Amino acid sequence: MMRVLLRISGFIAIIMPFFTVAGDDFHFRYLNDRVTDYSNKIVVCDSKKVTPKLSKSETNALKRIISERPLILAYLSTSSYNKCLQPERGELAEALLAYQYLELPSYTVKLAKSTEKLAFTTDFDNLKSYESLRNNDRNFIDSIVVLQQPFNELEVFERIMGM
């Protein structure tokens, strides 16, 4: 009986690296596919960027708000862009999060870490600025439908500020 167990464990020891490599190749390809999907979606969202037409009252209110908190426009731009990037951005984030808990080969880990740094750096100052708005200002901004689509931040800033 011991010999059979020894032979089975020897056989497993011999074939296990092949399964591990195949599994690791799967993880790399899966992540690479998510990165490719995300990159393609970036192209789509970039093509959707517009300079929205704002009413005079919206422009005046936004000018006051942005003068007080200039990071608001950056927050709105990032937020609308990230919404456009769904569901691909979420799928990539989910894979990167799960990969933190797996033992993967170094090439897959490097791809995951570099992708995370490139795709998921967050400026919490922008969020903090948005969260610190008075409720009526936040509700007003959130009601402007044209700012919920990807937009050209610099052009919008120049229009609002009258440059």
Automatic annotation (TrEMBL):
This is Uncharacterized protein. It comes from Photobacterium alginatilyticum.
